[in-house]
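ARCHIVE CARD
SHELF: 3
SLOT: left
DATA:
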Amino acid sequence: MTDIKAALRAQRIETPSWAYGNSGTRFKVFAQQGVSRDPYEKLADAAQVHACTGIAPTVALHIPWDKVADYADLARHARELGVGIGAINSNVFQDDDYKLGSVTNPDPAVRRKATDHLLECVDIMDATGSDTLKLWFSDGINYPGQDDLRARQDRLAESLAEVYDRLGEGQRFLLEYKLFEPAFYATDVPDWGTAYAHCVKLGPKAQVVVDTGHHAPGTNIEFIVAFLLREGRLGGFDFNSRFYADDDLMVGAADPFQLFRIMYEVIRGGGLTDEVAFMLDQCHNIEPKIPGQIRSVMNVQEATAKALLVDRDALAAAQAAGDVLGANAVLMDAYNTDVRPLLAELREEMGLAPDPMAAYAGSGYFEKIAAERVGGQQAGWGA
């Protein structure tokens, strides 16, 4: 149990700045009281999540949503709040120029603009001390014949290579993939295999990020995780849940057993380290922002704790003996264990309240920001 607690104490989960802004569906963005109005207030909200959970010390930024005049000052502000700047997320999907793609666009001027933005994000990494650039491309085509599929891969490779060469010592980029949307006929980075192939060609600073919502129904995500870990190419996760498509709901909401299975493969493959980034990528449309992030961190914690409880010796023995039901029972015994008392005990040992949700509710922070953050433009996802 001591080893399990040590592993849980060392776990780090990064929260996204955009989770603290207003968001919604494709039809409506829902405003809430007390929502942050700039990146500085987003960091303050994220600091509350870390204060309540003890394991969320970094915040991912999204550029240009989190653009500021002085990134070194923003990093200083984060440190004063007890958190740090995590991954820098690029945005090459919201300008009118990107209607036909960004780095794969047939127009070289648009490709230049998109790649320059990615290079700008590396500059921001330098200024903030971030070591991770996260890349997601909405690029693709809607109709057969609209563009040349192979040429688009060539353009993608060319841009990625330029960005890769710009990375400094200790920096990396994570390449995300998405099955569809907004491109419906062909997406330029539609699956983990495409992302993996580009990363392998580039070198060790290029790794794959697995967004748990970006897969076809029935996809065995834990297999993807196991494969990428085996190849040394799993750079991190964007944790969320999906019921139908890329719903960006709270991690563990749709299928907590899947999250447990993923975390078991992470532990089995030696991925519970700082080398694999555990990031949340969610939009809280109708639930309150900060409690939504706290609950999500707790959900990942609980899945991790259960995965750590798997009796791996017993599992290996059952597998070697061909004991199908016995092997499955070992996993199910761990999954069905109530780990909440263990985590409450761990938090108390860390000097935290045993129930993070109750701690936040009793902190008075929401009442404070609801009163103070009146006026100004509330942050949103830029839609």
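SLOT: right
DATA:
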Amino acid sequence: MSILPVKNELGFFEIRLESIGGLGANLAGKMLAESGVLGHGLNGSNFSSYGSEKKGSPVKSFIRFCDAEVEIRDHSPIEQPHVIGVFHEALYKTVDVVSGLTGDGIVLVNSTRDFDEVKKDLKLTYGTLAIVDALSIAVEERTKVNTAMLGALFRICSFLNPDTMRDVIRKTFEKKYPHLVEPNIRTFDRGYNEVQFKTYEVPEHAEGRAFTRPVPQLGYQTQAIGGVMISQANSILKDLSGSRQGFIPEFHQEKCISCAACDTVCPDYCFVWEEGEDKRGRKQTFLKGIDYQYCKGCLKCVEACPTDALNDLREVIGYAKKHSIKQYFPFVGSEG
């Protein structure tokens, strides 16, 4: 008798993880698939999709399970998952993370906000929403978000035995990183126990979210010769907020001596300066604030600041927009 709670027409139970590079979604997918195959005798497969393999870039990890007698011959990306795990809330801005979700599907989100706010951002109308504060758990246990998300996913996938994942965690870390075994098991257990659920009534004949496949604006017939970047001020107009992993620098004007140590180590255009005069009437350039559009949350500026004018802050929705001081690029146009 099958232990899978639901299957699609091919006999698969499918999971899709939506994340950014650096949060460990690729490893989480591998460990989740390994647990189902080695611990429960299921057939399973895992593979990931990512671009430049760098921190902050969008990542998708796919997991398929089926009964032992069913062969997996489908290795295409999962378009209609039963479960979706969202590792980073900022993905809402650029990626339709719940695209293709089945009518009775479950969405797991790493968040500190309440269910109705997250539901509104995801544009969900019905189904089950699960929320876990995976970032706080990871920070407190000095591990990564992926293990806490795995704990929550195991609570959702009740057909999987948590003990099998604890064994996988030991096997994964004990040789190279034995000191990380127990912290990761604690992180997994906390994710399992601290995830919360809310179900929005599902209509009797509910249909899933239609899957949308992004289509590139340029193709082989329209691409500029030589790989030319045709968008004006390509670097200046970009938004790096989706790269942040939960922390941003907080600026205290009264402690700042405008030494520019922060700007020296900053990899982008975060710090905004203005000309003025000091107490003796001499011309001086003063730090005005931070343009969070360009902040990747690397916190190099916090390490470099000699006066504690910058400190790390757990980011909450809306903080960056409220406290951002915008850069002015006069030759770029109205968006600069």
